[in-house]
Sequence to fold (510 residues):
Amino acid sequence: MKKRAKISVVAVDIMLVAVSYAITVLIKPNASTAYFVKYSLSFVGFIALWIIVSFINKKYQIENYNSSSQVYWSIIKTNLVIVALTALIMYGLRNMEYSRFIVFGTTGIATILEFFLFYLFYSLKYAKSGPNGVSRFPVTNGYDYYEETSKDTVTLDEKSIRTGVHIHKILREEIGNKAFAFVCRHISVDKKDFIIFSTTTRFNIDRLPAKYYKHLINIKRMNDIRFVNKFLESVNAKLPREGTFIGCLETKNQRKRRVLKKYPPVLNIIFYTFDFIIKRVFPKFFLTKKIYFFLTRGNNRVISKAEIIGRLYSCGFELIEAEKIEGMMYVAARKIKKPVFDENPTYGPFVKLRRVGKNGKIIYVYKLRTMHPFAEYIQDFVYEKNQLKEGGKFKNDFRITTLGRIFRKFWIDELPMLINFVKGEMKLVGVRPLSSHYFNLYDEDLQELRTKFKPGLIPPFYYDLPETLEEIQDSERKYLKSYQKHPFLTDWRYFWVAMKNIIIRRKRSS
Fold:
């Protein structure tokens, strides 16, 4: 954007804030024109802060907006940071002549006016030129060269057919030497059995002939794909068994480091907090999820390493390798089966987990989420990589969130299991309800013995505190055989010893 045009945008924005300030002062309870004088110096400081934060957060770089949702998101995140900083300043300077009503009122009205004006600018901009739908990197297959001209069309440019050496060159230029080396470890780029995409829509994947290509590479971030699982399901349908998919994304931790590094101290913490709330908390609740998708259209979503691996496994792939390269994570996955096609994946704060109950019947155990979404699909993967630690839990379980570790420490995550107790699927004392994978790690005789009884809320683990899987099995076997003979007395004894170990000795299972 030209310097003069940017100055005009800033000037208009200052005018919007001034108008919003005047409206707020006039509608303030016990309104008086004296407020204009009383709050004049504070308002000048507020305007200065407004402009500085807007520049730092690049709100005025309207030429970079590619969608209306980016317009809304840029305004909201910037103005939230401004409000937070103003609140901190007011808290630090207790004698500051300003009003919370003025701050929130001015910001709210200015935000609405900015929505209208910035969106109008964006609409006029694209009414003249149209959005740039041409991808910098084409869709390629071996020696052929495809250009993605829009979201819904793929055309073959006959003049652009090049040798494999040229494909190597443009791929290396696009993703860098390290990422190119990652691709070469899993695909022979001298063959014609692969195809390269730079796309966020599965429409382009669905146009491919089934099982024609052995490998598929997509160099668009999976963070910008609206329906990630549907996209991966389409990839699965087009690849033969043992076919390879290579993709990339910015993980949750990489995003956090980038955001904290991008902004100055204090401001970076405030911005990351709001970013976390909107990008991580909002998608997990029914009502706020609608707000999240309205603001973001599914672009630039936050995805953890555990979630993307879980999505791959749920869509019929197994992970071959994942490597962090220059702020991105590249993943190579092999097709091993058809997708699960889970219509109701667990994503919100409450989850229903499939567990083996009495008589081998599958019951759904209610818990608060302590793991990243789709983590339930990679239990086998985590076990193979890390095995078990003392107490029977998985070692270095990266599926567990920070909040999840706190929940587990104080058993907060298990409170919803009281629903299973009320439903009669579980009893107060008894063996843990296990997943099918963990259940299959047990000896066959114990598997048979376990399914004769209901699982319990308080496991025998807290009675004699076993450490290894073998010791856990011996502990449960001893409890179940005792329960067969004396049900009430066994549970009574186990309950009070468990309470002693939990409350007095502060023992935990993880």
